[in-house]
Amino acid sequence: MAPPVEFPEPTGPPLAIAEVFLGYLDYFRARVVTGIGSLAEEDRRRSHLPSGWTPLELAKHLTFMEMRWLEWGFEGRPVEDPWGDHQDGRWHVRADETSAQVMEALLRQGTRTSSVVRRHGMDEIGAPGPRWGGEQPPRLERILLHVLQEYARHLGHLDVVVELTTGQVGD
After folding, report:
1. Which of 57, 85, 110, 127 is 20 to 30 Å apart from 11, CA to CA?
2. Which residues, at least 6 apart from 87, have a Cβ–Cβ distance to it below 8 Å?
3. Which stretch of 10-14, 23-27, 125-129, 161-165 has the lowest confidence by average pLDDT?
4. Is this structure's pTM higher than 0.90?
């Protein structure tokens, strides 16, 4: 499981914008790991909402989402299966993937994301490639804003599932 990460208070010491983004990403990622870790194994693998996703599917989606935006997209690196979190138009976790494997993959992706961000400037434009569907690649800052909003939105979804399942209230 992820080590505890303190909320990156806006009144903290001044940081470069890249470090601010990474601090929020680390916090959101750690909260996802903690939230899923608070669920029993069977609750990690079943849907709790009419939309049909499971908590483990959400974690795998976040892993691939980060990879798609930063490695495959921004850096333009070849990726074997950028949509490996999807099957038949839905998020998917194989039956042989353990909770520990899914959570470890999410944390490893976070390390890779941090590395990508620290290698580049916020105003740098992404590499052309298949991620952009022929459109102009965005700047790193814009990509990170998108990734942050996706994490915040999905963490809110997970907080609802955890509260409905365990009674624990999220942030």
Report:
1. 110
2. none
3. 10-14
4. yes
